[in-house]
Write a structure and sequence with these properties.
alpha+beta; 6 strands; 6 helices
Length: about 200
């Protein structure tokens, strides 16, 4: 299972990794720029590159035929479930179970770069479920272990990105201070200075 926390590193292209949780970054594969919806998954290659950024890769050379459509369906479901979770509404978790059940793994012992042994899990199939299973598991972990009050959306009115607020005081307001936080500060300055 990949780490559910993403880095704050912004890639040169592709969906932003600003959510501090894999489930949040799943939702952030759709964004808004200049008032237009931006889809970061336009083909299988976009999706495979996004998965690889989280250490999720396929074991065979052939990409499952339904991978992109399954990933977009998982994203839509995650959006629904996480929105319900955040609002304190009942979550129909049963809809996530088929994604979780399609994710068959076996224990796998490996050694990291420092020579330390670690136990991880390796997929037993090359299917959409095998590739999307770790992402579905991150959504499930958020629903089970997460704090709904820490699931937030950027407060900038033109932004739709999500994040899990891991700050000490839990006062994070922006997907990124460098992006939306600075845009907000600049707009406030222009308003105060009459510009």
């Amino acid at each position: 299972m990949p780490d559910t926390q993403s880095t704050t590193e912004q890639p040169q292209s592709g969906a932003p990794m600003l959510g501090d949780h894999l489930a949040m970054d799943l939702l952030n594969t759709e964004a808004r720029a200049d008032g237009q919806l931006v889809e970061f998954w336009t083909n299988d290659q976009d999706l495979l590159l996004w998965l690889a950024r989280y250490g999720i890769s396929q074991t065979a050379t052939a990409t499952p035929a339904d991978l992109l459509s399954q990933a977009k369906a998982l994203r839509a479901l995650a959006h629904q479930l996480i929105s319900q979770f955040r609002a304190g509404q009942p979550v129909d978790y049963r809809l996530l179970n088929p994604y979780l059940q399609a994710h068959s793994t076996v224990p796998y012992l490996e050694q990291d770069a420092e020579g330390t042994l670690r136990l991880s899990r390796q997929s037993t199939a090359n299917s959409s479920g095998a590739l999307l299973g770790p992402v579905a598991e991150a959504v499930a972990q958020l629903l089970v272990e997460g704090n709904a009050a820490l699931v937030k959306q950027c407060e900038h009115p033109d932004c739709i990105l999500w994040f899990y607020d891991r700050t000490k005081a839990h006062k994070r307001r922006w997907c990124s201070m460098a992006l939306c936080g600075n845009r907000h500060k600049a707009a406030q300055f222009r308003t105060r200075s009459g510009g």
